[in-house]
Design brief:
The complex is a heterodimer. Chain A is mostly beta strands. Chain A contains five helices and 18 strands. Chain B is built from five helices and five strands. Chain B is globular, with a radius of gyration of 15 Å. Classes of the chains: A mainly beta, B alpha/beta.
Chain lengths: 383, 131
């Protein structure tokens, strides 16, 4: 990694706090892909080969302000957003002691094992982390995090507490909507001993999605449906469906085995948004890879199982007129999903700072019988 | 001419490095370091001493990555990229050559470094030899 070290030479490691070191690091991914069949789309790709969708470029600046205070900013431009550059991370960090660090600002929400470096393709072997688990739609929070590392006998422990909120947009059924998750409180704990590590994450928050603009059918919006239900006195049903300050939880478990040759990773997650039409989401993946020098082939299986919240409407089956019941049932049922996904790919470290990757993905929708395949290739760099 | 060709060969061919690596500290340092602790120091999991590295591309660097830090160079780089881009750690500072390494370790009581065992001199103390 190239470092520009201003003012101070590293060789004089014990330097005065008055000089600020600014370290610049960067990473980039140039990914390309296409689905194998016409009219198929997956992860933003269609059957026309294109280079923009998953490509990104980022520069990180970290400045040590002395007295254990540092500031970090990561400017990232995604091809999917026309490479418009945005602060993906921007936080102040204060080292309470060697083991404990408090950070405040825009941070990555520690949902998953790979959350912290989702964008840094160089850090993992896949082209993209398994989307059945990682395809959550929002990655960052504004808040405070406490990160603590300990050595427990021969085990390394890292514990993180996070407090904050998310206030931005998310993509919902193809529509970009305002999304808010307030009062996020969470903890993650990772234990590592030798080749084996285990992780648990639990976060709660209050979710509000402004789903009114979401189209149910041509000319019928979700806002329109909720308005009609309220007019006929069914505010209680609207409250059970709308995503309005609803208690939400995320639970995730992860296990990794990495002995230098074999790398086996699995994560299981459960997501619930109470009193809303959002399905309960159970997902997991298992990935097995083997390193042969600089060549690492892998195979992975993903499962995405979303259970529709039929309880939200079942009590209204006999009382609600069909013209209202049908769209309500349709809305809730449409949240169900059952996808099996297989990935086969490899990473090739062809350069000390760059890796070439290729991945074939085959996704089988068990509910509709639809099947789609994607071929993607890419180069990940760190500098 | 022949000399030049030989020199060129020496510079371009990756020289197989089977050298013993001496892990060195300041002469006043009385710490006992085993290979596990060395791994921890060079992966940022311990900060008992301040680890320094030889620059990438130096002959014994990749050998040290494997033996001292416990991972192949590319894996180690991927590992550090996880820490760097999350603000959780910074890889050991890099020094240009063995002379700079010896000088740095001799001058800093909390430093730990490494050189080819054949390059060790009296200004530093060897606490571990990696074969």
């Amino acid at each position: 990694m190239i470092k520009f070290i201003c003012a101070a030479v590293v060789a004089s490691a014990v330097s005065s706090a008055a000089v600020a070191d600014v370290t610049i690091n960067g990473f980039a991914s140039i990914n390309a892909g296409a689905t194998t069949g016409s009219n198929e789309s997956l992860y933003g790709y269609d059957d026309k080969f294109e280079l923009k969708n998953e490509s990104l470029f980022a520069i990180q600046l970290q400045s040590d302000l002395g007295d254990k205070l540092s500031v970090t900013g990561q400017l990232l431009g995604r091809g999917a957003d026309d490479f418009d550059v945005d602060f993906e991370w921007a936080f102040l960090s204060y080292e309470l002691n060697d083991q404990t660090r408090v950070s405040a600002g825009r941070l990555r929400t520690p949902f998953f094992k790979y959350s912290d470096f989702l964008d840094v393709g160089y850090a993992y072997d896949w082209i993209r982390p398994p989307q059945s688990v990682y395809g959550l739609g929002f990655a960052n929070i504004e808040g405070v995090s406490l990160y603590r590392t300990d050595q427990l006998g021969r085990m390394d422990s890292s514990l993180q507490f996070v407090l904050g909120n998310y206030d931005s947009t998310t993509s919902f059924s193809g529509t970009e909507i305002d999304a808010q998750i307030d009062s996020i409180v969470g903890a993650t704990w990772e234990l590592t001993q030798g080749s084996l590590s285990g992780r648990v994450a639990y976060l709660v928050g209050e979710t509000t999605f402004d789903t009114a603009p979401v189209q149910l059918a041509p000319g019928v919006t979700l806002g329109g449906l909720f308005g009609t239900l309220e007019q006929v006195g069914l505010s209680a049903l609207v409250a059970d469906l709308a995503i309005q300050e609803d208690d939400s939880s995320f639970l995730g478990f992860g296990v990794t085995y990495d002995n230098g040759d074999w790398i086996i990773v699995s994560e299981i997650t459960n997501i619930e948004v109470d009193n809303s039409f959002i399905a309960e989401q159970d997902s997991y993946y298992l990935s097995v890879g083997h390193r042969f020098g600089s060549f690492t082939p892998y195979i992975s299986y993903e499962k995405d199982d979303n259970t529709a919240q039929v309880d939200a409407y079942s009590a209204y089956q006999s009382t609600l007129p069909a013209q209202l019941f049908v769209p309500v049932k349709g809305l809730v049922d449409s949240q169900a999903a059952d996808n099996d996904t297989w990935n086969l790919g490899f990473r090739y470290d062809f350069h000390p700072s760059a890796a070439f990757k290729a991945q074939f993905t085959d996704q089988d929708n068990q509910l509709t019988g639809d099947r789609r395949s994607l071929i993607s290739v890419g180069i990940d760099l760190v500098f | 001419m022949l000399n030049r060709i030989l020199l060129l060969i020496c510079l371009t061919v990756a020289w197989p490095a089977y050298a013993d690596i001496a892990v060195i500290v300041h002469p006043s340092n009385t710490a006992a370091i085993d290979i596990d602790e060395l791994n921890r120091l060079y992966t940022g999991r311990s900060s008992a001493l301040t680890a320094v590295n030889l620059a990438e591309g130096m002959p014994i660097r990749s050998e040290f990555d494997e033996k001292g830090a416990g991972r192949a160079s590319a894996q180690l780089k991927a590992y550090w990229s996880k820490l760097v881009f999350t603000g959780k750690g910074t890889p050991p500072a890099e020094l240009a050559n063995e002379a700079a390494m010896l000088e740095h370790v001799a001058a800093n009581p909390d430093a730990i470094g490494y050189v080819d065992a054949a390059s060790v001199n009296g200004s530093v103390k060897v606490i571990l030899t990696l074969e």
